[in-house]
Amino acid sequence: MSRIQLALNVDNLDESVTFYARLLGIRPAKVESGYANFSVDEPPLKLVLIESPGRGGSVDHLGIEVADAAAVDSEQARMAGAGLASIDERGVVCCYAEQDKFWVQGAPDGERWEVYTVLADAATFCPPEGTECCGDALVETSGRCCA
Predict the structure, then answer these.
(1) pTM exceeds cut of 0.90
(2) Measured between alpha carbons, how far is 5 from 116 in angstroms, rounded to an integer?
């Protein structure tokens, strides 16, 4: 399993969940405080909604979800071979999930890309206080994490 992730900032989570459920014809896979995601089979997509009042309609970050940690390692090695630098994060809590991931560095227009796998559900959007959050990607964009 591999699919593209599109994380959007939305002004109102409830309204956005209702809209995307109608648009995609499916229910969200997860809904938490200020966060929801849809797992779309065809085309393979993980649509993430992050409630960020005043930032609605903007892209928070992009990603590629892969099946397991071995696939994360494989993709990181492949991208390193292609000359792409990355920031490694293992066992981090972000977006109500424990994840192994890395962030790709150097996109020409500054887009943030992560390659990740979900290890387990988590009870919080952010990691415990005092630990790093998603390579600071969400802190800098949506402000949701580690606020």
Answers:
(1) no
(2) 10
Across the chain, which distance is largest between two alpha carbons, in Å? Answer: 43
Percent of the chain residues topping a pLDDT of 70: 85
CB atoms within 10 A of CB 56: 15
DSSP code at position 127: P
Q: What are residue 94's phi and psi, to 5 degrees?
A: -160, 140
The amino acid at 13: L
- Amino acid residing at 125: F
Residues 6+ apart with CB under 8 A from 56: 9, 10, 11, 12, 16
Distances, alpha carbon 75 to alpha carbons 67, 81, 85, 88, in Å: 11, 10, 12, 12
Residue 143 has pLDDT above 80, yes or no: no
3-state secondary structure of 120: strand
- pLDDT tops 90 at residue 95: no
| Per-residue pLDDT tens over the stretch 13-31 | 999 999 999 999 999 999 9
